[in-house]
Every structure is written in structure tokens, then in C-alpha cells.
Amino acid sequence: MAGTTSSVEQKAWELLASHRPDDVVRTACVAFDPASACYTIRSFGMDFLVAQKDRTITGLAPESSVLLDREGDFFRIAVLWYLANAKEIAETGRLVSFKNIRGGDIFSKGSHVMPLERIAHKYGNDRVGFLDRGRALGGEVLMIADASLRMYPLPRIPVTLTLWTADDEFPARADLLLDSTGELQAPTDILWYLAITSVLIML
Q: What pTM value is reported for the model?
């Protein structure tokens, strides 16, 4: 597994190096410093430095360790794949569920199911806490459900989390939706990783 991940990451670095920085800045909505040959990319309201020369990704915020340490291999691959393949496509604002994207039905069963019930359990009676946590991660408050947030695991791939708080008739419920452009920006497995990370980082 480690060897496979290393090989995939190495290819991603090579692909990124083959692109002109100006093109990457435009398509991926990131910044580039020619002096250090570093890209700066924002994820969940935190800045990360992607150093081409050293082939490293480092976080500038203390909480960035959540992404770099807990699932560092997957995070690095997602960031590198995005930088090398992002498309200059504007969001539509049309929200879709995973079951409505190509191959997304596999993530509605078994071990691939997103732990949305944990969001519902944690914030089912705490709408303010849900919104405060999302804002701290760079999220934008939307007027959907009882509470909702648009979060950006990567600049052109927003994820929307919705929360229905508990009442006398129904238990709390949470859902996750993608912008309809998501499947144009990344393959389904990377979208799934970004989505599940959006859930776990809220907990």
C-alpha cells in the first residue's frame, strides 16, 4: 500500500512539474511564488505550501496537522492531482448527491458510507456550534435546512453540509452535497476523500 501511494504521488509531482505555473494559478485558483517555486493552496480555510523543489506539502496553521498527519498520503495526492488537473470552470450552485454522479453509488453502502450520523449526533441540538465550527474552517453559511455550510476542501471543489436539528418528531439528520461541477474537477475517489474529510474535520 505504501509503495503504491508513493508511486502515485511521485507521478503526480512529475505531472505538476510539467505545467506552467501561470496556468496552474489560473485553473486551480492558487498562488505561486517564483523565488521559492512554491504554490499556496487553501483548504478548509488553511493555507498549505506545495514546494516543487523539495516535493513537500506543509501547513501554515496549527490545525493543518489534522489533514497532513491523519490522512497525509491521501491529502497530498488529492492536492497534487487537483493542482495538475483542475479546470477553469465556474461553480453552478446546483447541488447534487453522490448517488447522482458517475460511480458515486458505491459510496452509499458498506465501508464507504460517510459518517454523517456523527455530525447529526454532535450537532443535532447545537445549530450554533455547527455553524461556528464551519466558519472556523473557512465555511460560508447558506440558507438551506436548519443550518448549512459551503466548505472548500480545495478551491474549485466546494462541499455543502446540511443539518436538520432534532425535534419532538424527528431525530437530527445531516447530509452532504457537491456542486454539479465536482465530477468535472476530480475523479470519484478523490471527491469521496474530500467529502469524508469534510465530515471528519467538523467533529
A: 0.91
